[in-house]
Task: inverse folding
C-alpha cells in the first residue's frame, strides 16, 4: 500500500521528476561521452602527437568525477526536499521509519539506475552525432574513434551505481534520523542569516591572492614547458579555491555596496533583486565557482581546438604559395580552374634537355612568382614574390615543387627568349593559381588535385601541391581539434545544465515571494524583468570569471600553439551563443514555475 | 460623503457555463465610509476570502460593480490593477508574507520603491510609520530574527507606509498569540482613530471583530446581518458578536 502511495506521489510531481531525470541523464550522458575519449588509448595515442594528452585526460576524469558527485548531490537534495513532506506524513500516520528509509533507498537507487541507463544510451547516440558532425563540419581526419566503446560504458555504469548507492544510503539514514515534525515543516524553517564582515574581507583578499597565484603558475608553466606537470595541478587547486572565495566574498561585497547606494537600491525591485542575489550567492558559491572552472575548461578546450585549426591554416599556407598547380591543363582542369575564385594566376613554360629545366626569364618579369618565407623565430609565414627567381632560392624552391617529380631534381635555369627558343626539347606548361581563400575553395582544389594525381600517378607519392600538404597537416592536428571541440561541448552542456538545475531547484521556494510581490501591486512585466536580471547575474558571474581564466590560461599554450590568441573571438562567440541558449531556457522554465 | 468602498450586486460564480457551477457570492451589497473600521465575519467557506480577493483586485466578480476610492476596479486591465494595488491598497496577511531576504526596513520601504518614490522621501516615511508601530529598534533585523507579533507589525507598517485609501486585513491575528494579537489590534484601532485610515478586516475571530465599528456577517455567499458598535464598550460589543454568531449560525 505504501509503495503504491509513494508511486502515486511521483505521478503528481511528474514535472519536478522530469527535471530531475533529465538532469541526471545529461550527467551520465556527458560522463560517457568524456569516457569514450578518455579511456580509448588507441584513439588518444593515434590522434595526438603530445605525450601530455593522456595525462591531461586523466586529470579531466578526476575533475569530471568531482563535478558529477557534486551535481548528483544537488539532484539528491532536490529529490529529498520533494519527498520528505510526503514521507513525513506517512510516518505521522504510523509507518515505521525502517520501512520509510527502505522506500527512499529504493526510490533513490531506482531513479539513479534508470537515468544512468537511459543517459548512457543517449551518450552513445550523442557521441556518434557530435563526432560525425564535427568530423564533417571541420573536415577532420580522426582515427580509432568509435561512439560505442565498451570500457567507457562499463566505467560510466560503475561510477554512477556507486555514487547512487551512497546517495541512497545517505537519504535512508537522514530520513531515519529526522523527526516527523521536522520533515513535515521543513519548508517553513527559517534561513539562517550570517553577518561576518571580517571573514568576508579576509576571504576576498585570499580569493584574489589565490587567483593571482594560479594565473602566474599558468603563465610560468606555459613559458617553461618542463614545469607543466606540476603547474597544472597547482593552477587547478589555486584557481578552484580562488574562484570560490572570490565569488563568496568579492561578489557579496559588491552587492552590499550596491545595496548601500540607496539611489540605486531603492528604485523599484532593485533591492529585492540584490537581496535575492546576496542570499543566493551564499547558497550558490560552490556551484558558481565550479561552473566558472568548467566554463573556463570548456571554452579553453574549444579555443585550443580552434587554435589547432588555425595552425592548419598557418602551416599549410606556409608550405605553398599557390593553392593549385596544374601541368599541361586539359579541358576538364581548365574548366575547374575557371570555377575557382582566383586572386592571382601565373602561367610558366619550361623546356628540358634531361640535364636542366629552362624557364623564360621574361615570363617572370611580367608575372612574378610568389613564394612563402618562414620566420624561424615567430613561426610566422610571409607571402612574397620575385621577378628574378635566378637570384632567389626561396622562389626557386617554390617553383621546383610546381614541377612533376621527375623534373624536380633537375637544375632550373632562367634564360632569354632567344636562348629559350633555341633549346630543342619538350615544352611543359605549368598553371599556378592562388585563390582568395584556400578554405573556401577547398572542394574544387581537392578535385583539381585528385585529377592531377590521376593524370600523373607519380604525384601520388611525391605530393608537392598545397592540397597534399593540407592532407598531412590536417591529419596531424584535427585529432587535437576534435578533442578540443568535443570536450568543450560536453563540458558546456554539463556546466550549464548544472547551473540550470540548481536555479530551478530553488524556484519552488520563490513562488511565495513572487506571489506576495504580485499581491502588493507589482506588475507582471516588472516581475519578469526582475527574474531575468537575477538569472542573468547568476549566469554571468561564472562566465566572466571563466573568460578571465581562459584568457590567462591560454598562456599554457604559447609554446605549443602558433599565436594561441588569434581568432579568439570565434570560439568565444560560438560558446556564448550556446551559453545564452541555456540562459534563455533557464529563464523560461523558471518563470513557468514561479509566475502564474 | 464619498465612499471608500462601494460594492453593488456583486456575484461570483466558479465553473464554466454548462458545467457544474458553484456560486461563491450572490448579490453582495455594502459600503465602507472614510475612516471606518469594518469587519467581515463568516465561517470557513462562507465566501470571505472570495470577497476580499475581489475587493483587492486579485480576482474579478462575475457580475456587479466594485468601486474603491471612486474608481471602478472591475474595469481595470492587469497593469492598472497592479498599479491600483500598489497605490491605493494596503495588505496585512495572516502569515505575514514578509520577504525573508529583506530587512524590516527594506520590507516596509518596498511599496514606496515600487512606486519609484525618491530615496529622500522613503527614509522619513519609513521612520515615521516605524515609530508609530514601535519598530524603530528592529528596523535592521531580518524577519527570521523577529517574533510573530513583531513580524505582523512590520507587515502592518508595509501596508500603511504608502498611505493607502484602505487597508485590507485577512485574518491578521490568525497566527499570533493572544498578547501580540491584542497589541496589533490596539495599534490598528489607534491608527484608524488618529489618522483616519479606513480598515476592512476579514476574520472569524470574535475578539478581533470586537475592535471594529461595524460588522457584516457573511454566510453561503450572502451578506446577512449587520452589527454596529455605536456607543457600546468593546467588551459589550464582543458579547453582542458572540450572541449574533449563535443566532446567525442557525
Result:
Amino acid at each position: 500500500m505504501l509503495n503504491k502511495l509513494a508511486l502515486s506521489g511521483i505521478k503528481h510531481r511528474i514535472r519536478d521528476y522530469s527535471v530531475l531525470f533529465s538532469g541526471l541523464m545529461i550527467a551520465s550522458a556527458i560522463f560517457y561521452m568524456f569516457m569514450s575519449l578518455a579511456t580509448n588509448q588507441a584513439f588518444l595515442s593515434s590522434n595526438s602527437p603530445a605525450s601530455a594528452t593522456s595525462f591531461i585526460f586523466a586529470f579531466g576524469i578526476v575533475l569530471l568525477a568531482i563535478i558529477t558527485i557534486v551535481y548528483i548531490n544537488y539532484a539528491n537534495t532536490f529529490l529529498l526536499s520533494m519527498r520528505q513532506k510526503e514521507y513525513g506524513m506517512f510516518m505521522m500516520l504510523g509507518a515505521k521509519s525502517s520501512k520509510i528509509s527502505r522506500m527512499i533507498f529504493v526510490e533513490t537507487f531506482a531513479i539513479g539506475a534508470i537515468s544512468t541507463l537511459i543517459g548512457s544510451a543517449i551518450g552513445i547516440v550523442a557521441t556518434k552525432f557530435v563526432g560525425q558532425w564535427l568530423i564533417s563540419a571541420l573536415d577532420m581526419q580522426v582515427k580509432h574513434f568509435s561512439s560505442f566503446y565498451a570500457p567507457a560504458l562499463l566505467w560510466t555504469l560503475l561510477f554512477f551505481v556507486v555514487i547512487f548507492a551512497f546517495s541512497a544510503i545517505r537519504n535512508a539514514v537522514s530520513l531515519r534520523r529526522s523527526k516527523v515534525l521536522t520533515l513535515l515543516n521543513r519548508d517553513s524553517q527559517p534561513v539562517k542569516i550570517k553577518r561576518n564582515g571580517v571573514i568576508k574581507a579576509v576571504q576576498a583578499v585570499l580569493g584574489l591572492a589565490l587567483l593571482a597565484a594560479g594565473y602566474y603558475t599558468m603563465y610560468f608553466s606555459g613559458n617553461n614547458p618542463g614545469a607543466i606537470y606540476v603547474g597544472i595541478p597547482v593552477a587547478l587547486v589555486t584557481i578552484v579555491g580562488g574562484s570560490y572565495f572570490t565569488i563568496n566574498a568579492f561578489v557579496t561585497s559588491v552587492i552590499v555596496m550596491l545595496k548601500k547606494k540607496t539611489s540605486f537600491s531603492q528604485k523599484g525591485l532593485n533591492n529585492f533583486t540584490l537581496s535575492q542575489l546576496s542570499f543566493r550567492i551564499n547558497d550558490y558559491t560552490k556551484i558558481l565557482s565550479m561552473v566558472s572552472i568548467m566554463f573556463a575548461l570548456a571554452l579553453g578546450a574549444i579555443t585550443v581546438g580552434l587554435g589547432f585549426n588555425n595552425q592548419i591554416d598557418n602551416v599549410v599556407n606556409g608550405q605553398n604559395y599557390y593553392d593549385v598547380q596544374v601541368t599541361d591543363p586539359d579541358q576538364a582542369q581548365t574548366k575547374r580552374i575557371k570555377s575557382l575564385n582566383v586572386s592571382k594566376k601565373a602561367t610558366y613554360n619550361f623546356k628540358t634537355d634531361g640535364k636542366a629545366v629552362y624557364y623564360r626569364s621574361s615570363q617572370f618579369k611580367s608575372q612574378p612568382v610568389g613564394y612563402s618565407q618562414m620566420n624561424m623565430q615567430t613561426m610566422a609565414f610571409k607571402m612574397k614574390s620575385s621577378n628574378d627567381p635566378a637570384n632567389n632560392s626561396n622562389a626557386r624552391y617554390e617553383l621546383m615543387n610546381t614541377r612533376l617529380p621527375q623534373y624536380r631534381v633537375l637544375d632550373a635555369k632562367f634564360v632569354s627568349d632567344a636562348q629559350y627558343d633555341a633549346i630543342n626539347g619538350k615544352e611543359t606548361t605549368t598553371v599556378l593559381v592562388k585563390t582568395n581563400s584556400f578554405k573556401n575553395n577547398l572542394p574544387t582544389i581537392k578535385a583539381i588535385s585528385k585529377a592531377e594525381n590521376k593524370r600523373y600517378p607519380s604525384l601520388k607519392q611525391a605530393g608537392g601541391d598545397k592540397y597534399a600538404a593540407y592532407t598531412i597537416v590536417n591529419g596531424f592536428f584535427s585529432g587535437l581539434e576534435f578533442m578540443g571541440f568535443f570536450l568543450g561541448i560536453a563540458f558546456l552542456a554539463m556546466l550549464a545544465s548544472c547551473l540550470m538545475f540548481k536555479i530551478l531547484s530553488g524556484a519552488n521556494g520563490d513562488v511565495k515571494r513572487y506571489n506576495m510581490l504580485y499581491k502588493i501591486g507589482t506588475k507582471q512585466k516588472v516581475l519578469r524583468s526582475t527574474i531575468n536580471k537575477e538569472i542573468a547575474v547568476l549566469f554571468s558571474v561564472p562566465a566572466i570569471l571563466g573568460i578571465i581564466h581562459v584568457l590567462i590560461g591560454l598562456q599554457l599554450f604559447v609554446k605549443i600553439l602558433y599565436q594561441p590568441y588569434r581568432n579568439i573571438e570565434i570560439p568565444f562567440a560560438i560558446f556564448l551563443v550556446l551559453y545564452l541558449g541555456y540562459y534563455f531556457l533557464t529563464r523560461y522554465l523558471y518563470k513557468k514555475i514561479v509566475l502564474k | 460623503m464619498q465612499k471608500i468602498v462601494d460594492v453593488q450586486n456583486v456575484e461570483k460564480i466558479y465553473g464554466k457555463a454548462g458545467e457544474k457551477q458553484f456560486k461563491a457570492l450572490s448579490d453582495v451589497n455594502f459600503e465602507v465610509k472614510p475612516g471606518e473600521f469594518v469587519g467581515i465575519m463568516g465561517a470557513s467557506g462562507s465566501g470571505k476570502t472570495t470577497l476580499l480577493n475581489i475587493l483587492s483586485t486579485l480576482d474579478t466578480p462575475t457580475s456587479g460593480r466594485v468601486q474603491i476610492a471612486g474608481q471602478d476596479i472591475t474595469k481595470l486591465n492587469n497593469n492598472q490593477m497592479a498599479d491600483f494595488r500598489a497605490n491605493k491598497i494596503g495588505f496585512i496577511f495572516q502569515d505575514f508574507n514578509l520577504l525573508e531576504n529583506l530587512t524590516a526596513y527594506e520590507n516596509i520601504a518596498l511599496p514606496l520603491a515600487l512606486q519609484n518614490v525618491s530615496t529622500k522621501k522613503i527614509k522619513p516615511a519609513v521612520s515615521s510609520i516605524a515609530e508609530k508601530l514601535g519598530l524603530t529598534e528592529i528596523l535592521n533585523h531580518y524577519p527570521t530574527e523577529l517574533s510573530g507579533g513583531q513580524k505582523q507589525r512590520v507587515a502592518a507598517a508595509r501596508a500603511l507606509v504608502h498611505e493607502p485609501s484602505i487597508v485590507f486585513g485577512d485574518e491578521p491575528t490568525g497566527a499570533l498569540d493572544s498578547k501580540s494579537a491584542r497589541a496589533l489590534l490596539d495599534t490598528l484601532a489607534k491608527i484608524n482613530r488618529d489618522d483616519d485610515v479606513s480598515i476592512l478586516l476579514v476574520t472569524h475571530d470574535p475578539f478581533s471583530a470586537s475592535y471594529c465599528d461595524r460588522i457584516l456577517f457573511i454566510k453561503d455567499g450572502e451578506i446577512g446581518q449587520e452589527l454596529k458598535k455605536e456607543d457600546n464598550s468593546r467588551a459589550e460589543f464582543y458579547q453582542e458578536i458572540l450572541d449574533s454568531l449563535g443566532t446567525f449560525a442557525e
Notes: Chain B has one domain: 34-59+85-248. The radius of gyration of chain B is 18 Å. The CA atoms of residues 4 and 34 of chain B lie 6 Å apart. DSSP finds eight helices and ten strands in chain B.
